[in-house]
Amino acid sequence: PAHIMRSVAGGYDNESVALTTMTSTFYFWVRSLRADPKIKDGSATFDSYFYGALCGLAYVCMAATWGGFIFVLNLIGAHAAALAIFGRYTSKLHRA
Q1: Using H for helix, E for strand and C for coil, what is the string for the chain?
Q2: Backbone phi, psi, residue 90, to 5°
Q3: pTM exceeds 0.85
Q4: In this structure, how many other beta carbons lie within 10 angstroms of the beta carbon of residue 67?
Q5: CB 96 within 8 A of CB 52
Q6: Per-residue pLDDT tens for 64-74?
Q7: Which long-range contacts (CB under 8 A, 24 or more apart) does 59-66 make?
Q8: How far apart are CA 3 and CA 22, in angstroms?
């Protein structure tokens, strides 16, 4: 019974806000990497900068509400490393 207070069935301190901002961070990260079919040379687009900035803002909000924020930073770094290893590196990855 004492464990249920801090589990999924129990109380929510900051987890609901942290989960929302963590999901937003991942979404905006992936969205900033999306290629624009009209641009062939891989140059920067307004969308990549816009969603990259939103990703940073969501990350700051998540870091302010959740102590495990380093998990997200490591996961984004692992995703970027996997993209580079599998040959999917573009200049958008560097900008994002």
Answers
A1: CCHHHHCCCCCCCCHHHHHHHHHHHHHHHHHHHCCCCCCCCCCCCHHHHHHHHHHHHHHHHHHHHCCCHHHHHHHHHHHHHHHHHCCCCCHHHHHC
A2: -135, 170
A3: no
A4: 9
A5: yes
A6: 888 888 888 89
A7: 59/21, 59/25, 61/17, 61/21, 62/18, 62/21, 62/22, 62/24, 62/25, 65/14, 65/17, 65/18, 65/21, 66/14, 66/15, 66/17, 66/18, 66/21, 66/22
A8: 25
